[in-house]
Design goal:
This protein is mostly helical. It has a domain of 202 residues. It is built from 20 helices and 3 strands. Strands 2-1-3 form a 3-stranded mixed β-sheet. Helix 1 runs antiparallel to helix 4, helix 5 runs antiparallel to helix 10 and helix 14 runs antiparallel to helix 19. The longest helix is centred in the middle third of the chain and has 32 residues. The radius of gyration is 21 Å and the shape is globular.
Length: 480
């Protein structure tokens, strides 16, 4: 079963080529491949629980000459989030895209899925760079796919940003390789000392990753890109693409730069706090649904960095809280963007003030927005509540009152922009213009993801148990 790791990459990668050969069956092939990816992942995680973390050396050549695939609890959790979100987006997209757009969407979407899976399984810094580039290229192409001027301008800005971030990250990798003589995370972590070269390398890599994660003030590209892309693409960008850079930053923080990273925790927490408050205020001020959800992403990303000082002393509770928020955000934000896409398809626009009468016509979409809002606000029993509760508990124990204040204030601001969006959909006025029918699959997909985000709160202990399987890049990992 250990040989199943490469197929988590090969299956969607092969699928991206297969959909070219079977144009009449693109959607069916895409759905089958994404469902197969989830089934394979379940089998792999069962094996992970039974045997612990392991390495798979591709072609029998491991580091430093070859490529290793690595699986532990953290990577398994990120892969699970990816597989669930990918299935929801794929079901939605099968009904969303006409034939003319589907021929572009499915190859790029499956390529993106393959790249994300490969990134979460990568073990060395250069392979992370390669997969990060593939994710960025596929994401930019998907953003530009609509072909409208707004989408093309946003995609070009996104392209320039992601290239700048990649080059900055690669500069840091080059400095580390020159200093440590390796790009394997374990070997680099053992060789790195708090010397000026290591500090410079960390700064370069962190800045590059922060650009891709869109942490304030590097968020300038995100609202336009996420709001102008097609609804399923917006869902993928917010739920998955911005997470991959944060995942790399976490791996660097823990494995390569534990001492240096701790010194930057307070700075990143300040930026995270600003992101939570500023992004929430901007979301409240928006008049378009997709732009509101996009600025909500800016705010929610801030929580991941706000909590970093809580992790620095080695708190496993804070560590689990951050990852619970990451998982919940992926599910809830994908649901919100797809639900916003339904509102746009129904009304022909996404002006919030004109969303009258939606709940009577689209109850599942309204329910999806409501359930996703519960998770985003951090209300019980959602996964968002569980994650924020763990962070709040740790912050109180450590006496970090500014973090407590931002956590509480962020929840209140999230309630304001969610009620602004939800309140209009529950009005009883006549719809503006002639509403259009929305496929049932397009309603069920966001509802299922939003419900999963709420139900995740009941499985918080299981999530933490999964994270506990193997320290990141544990030396005792089994070799396949």
């Amino acid at each position: 079963m250990h040989s199943g790791l490469p197929f988590l990459v090969l299956l969607p990668l092969t699928g991206s080529l297969l959909v070219f050969l079977l144009p009449r069956w693109r959607a069916a092939c895409g759905l089958a491949i994404v469902a197969g990816n989830l089934a394979l992942l379940v089998a792999v995680i069962v094996q992970l629980v039974e045997t612990g973390p392991w390495l798979h050396a591709l072609g029998g050549w491991g580091a430093p000459l070859g490529i290793d695939l690595y699986l532990d609890g953290l990577s398994a959790l990120m892969l699970t989030m990816t597989a669930l979100v990918a299935l929801g987006i794929s079901v939605y997209s099968a009904a969303y895209f006409p034939v003319s757009s589907a021929r572009h969407f499915w190859p790029l979407w499956l390529l993106l899925l393959a790249a994300v899976n490969a990134l979460f399984l990568s073990r060395d810094l250069f392979n992370l760079y390669v997969t990060l580039e593939l994710v960025g290229i596929a994401a930019v192409a998907l953003t530009a796919m609509r072909g409208e001027r707004e989408a093309l301008v946003a995609a070009m800005r996104y392209l320039l940003t992601t290239l700048l971030g990649s080059m900055t990250y690669l500069l840091g990798v080059s400095l580390l390789y020159h200093s440590a003589g390796s790009v394997d995370m374990v070997q680099v972590g053992l060789a790195v000392t708090p010397a000026p070269v290591a500090v410079t390398a960390f700064a370069a890599m962190a800045i590059g990753l922060l650009l891709k994660t869109a942490l304030f003030p590097f968020h300038f590209w995100l609202p336009a890109a996420h709001s102008s892309a097609s609804a399923p693409v917006s869902a993928a960008l917010s739920a998955l693409v911005v997470k991959v850079a944060f995942y790399i930053l976490l791996r660097l923080w823990i494995e390569v730069f534990p001492g240096i990273g701790a010194g930057a925790a307070n700075l990143l927490a300040v930026l995270g706090a600003i992101a939570v408050i500023w992004g929430s205020v901007q979301a409240i001020l928006q008049e378009r649904a997709k732009m509101l959800v996009a600025y909500s992403t800016v705010a929610q990303l801030g929580y991941f960095f706000l909590a970093l000082p809580l992790v620095a002393p080695g708190s496993s509770i804070a560590w689990g809280g951050i990852l619970l928020l990451v998982f919940t955000h992926g599910l809830a934000k994908a649901a919100m963007f797809m639900a916003a896409g339904n509102l746009l398809a129904f009304a022909g626009h996404d002006r919030i003030r004109d969303f009258d009468h939606v709940v009577q016509r689209m109850p599942l979409t309204a329910a999806a927005l409501g359930l996703a809002g519960v998770s985003i606000m951090g209300l019980p029993p959602s996964g968002g509540f569980s994650g924020k509760w763990l962070l709040l508990q740790t912050a109180l124990e450590q006496g970090r009152w500014p973090i407590v204040l931002v956590l509480l204030l962020g929840g209140l601001l999230a309630a304001l922009y969610m009620f602004k969006l939800l309140g209009q959909t529950f009005t009883s006025g006549a719809p503006q213009g002639e509403p259009r029918a929305v496929a049932r699959a397009m309603e069920w997909a966001p509802f299922a993801l939003a419900a999963a985000a709420v139900l995740l709160g009941f499985f918080g202990t299981a999530t933490l148990d999964l994270l506990a399987i193997g320290e990141p890049f544990a030396p005792e990992a089994r070799l396949d």
